[in-house]
Design goal:
Layout lengths: L1 H28 L3 E7 L1 E17 L2 E5 L4 E6 L6 E2 L4 E5 L2 H36 L5 H33 L2 E3 L4 E6 L6 E2 L8 E6 L4 E8 L11 E6 L6 E9 L4 E6 L2 E12 L11 E18 L4 E4 L17 H10 L13 E9 L2 E6 L1 E5 L3 E6 L6 E5 L1 H7 L6 E3 L11
Parallel strand pairs: 1-23
Antiparallel strand pairs: 1-22, 2-11, 2-16, 3-10, 4-6, 4-9, 5-8, 6-7, 8-10, 11-15, 12-13, 12-16, 13-15, 14-15, 16-21, 17-18, 18-19, 20-21
Helix pairs in contact: 2-3
Amino acid sequence: MKSRIWIIAIAVLVLAAGVSGYFIVKKKKDKRTEVTVEAAEVRRLVSTVSATGSVEPVTQVKVSAEIPGRIVQLNVKEGDRVEKGQFLVELDSQTYLAALESATSSLRSARGQKQKAEADLRRVRELVGKEMASQADLDAAQAAAELYAGQLDQAVAEEKRVRENLAKTRIASPMSGTVSRLNKELGELTLGSQFQEDVILVVADLSAMQVRAEVDENDIVGVKLGDSAKVEIDAYPDTSFHGVVAEISQSATEKSLQAEQQGKNFDVKVAITDTVRGIRPGMSSTVDIATAERDSALSVSLQCVAVRDKKAGKAVEIKEKEKPKSSRELAAQAKAGVADTSKTTARDEIEQGLFVKVADSVVWKPVRTGLSSDRHIEVTSGVNAGDSVVNGPYRVLARELTGGMKVKIKKPEEPKGKKK
């Protein structure tokens, strides 16, 4: 009995070893590369340009004092509704009242001097007619009359200027709207715009809002007036609003990214056409501007498109062309032994394409691409609708895969903790 049991046990072990060896050998022989595929489909594509910015009113006015002074009356607070011409702020007027009294006194004095000079001129003319005064006396009287006439004009202008300054101590609203920002309080000093802009408050029309976004210089060429846009405001999560490009800046604004690199953006104003309750100036926002669209475009996922060397068919590394160096710089590099003699693949030596799965292998198909959205890209030639196009894994698609390589479909991974 014992010997029989031993014989059975040995037979079972041999059988198990044989089965295990069979599967190991089979696995080693299966050298096919695992890939994932998708079908090329006809779908609607919308090319968008994304940019960040902040919400601001379409129409707003910064209210500043034209003259310096201390605020003695402030009739509004932030959030108040005001009408055009409504009284807002009053500055201390005592200094300007005193200046007006002085200017009025000077005006009266100049007017009296002019009247006296004109009377003297008339008397001298009579005396000259009676040959009791000389021509020199007449010329002097005429010059005096002209002088006092000029002084009177100057006094009139000064009195008008001082009176206008006194009127500027009372500031009215230039438009109907809402006080969106209040920078000054009662008793504070205002510098007056003759030195620099010193904003007291801002009146804005909050019924019409827009987003001032900064679009990168590489994307601005595709943006046009009237383009529709999707507006997302951080304060309203999971909600988007419709907008329209209303204004495009013609000059760039530079923002330093690094010491040796400058980033250039263009301001684009997107008017929000939807009504947004509770929206306020300064809210952070993101806009997606639709620059082009296709209703029926044969397309694949963006990651499907790869680049290969036209001759070797291998993955390549693309480097942007550097700024040409001067002969002096090249000579200095050669002398120092740091000249870069490496050769990178030129753009005219590469092609873009897709790997299409046919049976148990892949075929490299050079393609031409067109419009791209945030997830898909249009393929204008090279593949047909329904073709199985390789879309991953990224490392395999970008570096390892070549035309004619044997492949198999990668099985989806089961979620962790799932019982078989």
